[in-house]
Amino acid sequence: MLEVKMSKKLRDFDLDVEINVRPGEVLALLGENGSGKSTILNLLAGLLTPDEGEITLNGRILFSGADNRSIPPEERNIGYVFQNYALFPHMSAFENVAFGLKRRKIGAGEIQVLVSRMLEELGIGHLISERVTDLSGGQRQRVALARALVIQPDLLLLDEPLTALDRKTKEKIRQELREELVKSNKPSIIVTHSLRDARMIGDRVIILERGKVIWTGQPDELMINSPMRHEPDNTGEYVCFPANNKE
Amino acid sequence: MASGPFSSIRWGKNLFILISGLIILITILFYTLPLISLILRITPAEFITAICEPNVRSAITLSLVTATTATIIVVLLGTPLAYMNARIDYPGRKFIETLIDVPIVLPPSVAGLALLVLFGRRGLIGSYFSEFGITIIFTSVAVIIAQIFVAGPLYIRQAKSAFAMVDQVYESAARTLGAGRLLTFIKVTVPLARTGLISGIILSFARAIGEFGATIMVAGNLPGRTQTMPLAIYGFMQSDLTASIALSIVLIAISFIILILIRVISGRAA
User: Fold this and answer.
1) Residue A246: is its pLDDT beyond 50?
2) Percent helix, strand and coil across chain B, each rounded to 5?
3) Which of A192, B51, B125, B140 is most buried, by CB atoms within 10 Å?
4) Which residues of chain A make contact with B187, given a CB cutoff of 8 A?
């Protein structure tokens, strides 16, 4: 269970949110570019520090503004799939996925088994010794997911995990991603600006505007009564804009 | 007989080719003839006899040892500084960066004189050392200090831009996977910046091994103790020109190896 109440002064606006995510639940954070979605993930991961508030994960306090306490990112055990994946370009697929396991004092033999099994499960077992720079977008996405899942994180964060993919790959991976997230039985947060991603992957959707939650609801309700205007972008993907901000 | 606009265009074109060819030829001759004349001046046998002389050999050894030591110290101290300058916007960073650049534009003899005054027996720092009976000037330590002073900035500049080019998202990813700051630096940042770091190391080694002006001021020209290759070339010039030329050829060879190394490394990065 993830319980968050935090605020941070950003350059253009104040971020102030309250978010709870149950184990096995996938929360979709929807909002236009610059609404503070990625900042929320970085605050949860410990890459940024809130000004005030509290972040609790499975009863463990990760951040407490009152006690002036913040656990560093390397001790939070949070799996993070970055936008564009941030795979280490100087390492193979195996070394990327093994990176987190090596930090956990796991024996070399066991790491070999865990990484192979993980890549196998995501259908890219044959790419284990490839350099990540030689992989396609969809393959990189899977390696990034494997790297985040293999450490058995207590929370999964995914920042626009499908944006960098072409349309056909996107449809396929969207379904797989949903299955993997539910199967992991951890709380997950997926950041997206695509309505379709939010509806297909999320169990619950939060819409963010200028650092505030302006709507919470079920994915089915999104098209009916959300405060967002949605329009196809240049790839035909529906993305959202604030309804009151017609240009 | 050629006349009209066409022939004058052709004439102009030919003149252009002639002039550019001449410029290229002059450039090539200007930069290669001096080196070639050095190499042609002595026979291979004379070269081998010369570099076997004890004073010549000690100059080669001293140069390699001091330049390597200076480069190692520059890397150890300069790497954290370069990383800090690339990542943290601390107060006074611009000032520090400008300060580091000073030795690049400072005439080496001025740098040497400044170091001599600082480390001399009555100098700001030297006076404390001499109370303990430690002399720095005119020793191999002074040679290394002079080399660090002039060569350090080259590495720090290069390393800073190498670190600045590493996308911070890789460091963030390493942190979330469980690596602390130091481990992230060693496992992710340094390997991703390695091309720039290595060419910085090579550049500063090249500057250190060729150091002359600052060294002769602060360390003197004592055979076996402070006489590095460039100083020995100068020292032997009156008495034993063959030895000077032999040492120059060794330095030319080192320069070429360094140039080739930089080419290979930057080619691999591209």
Assistant:
1) no
2) 80, 0, 20
3) A192
4) 99
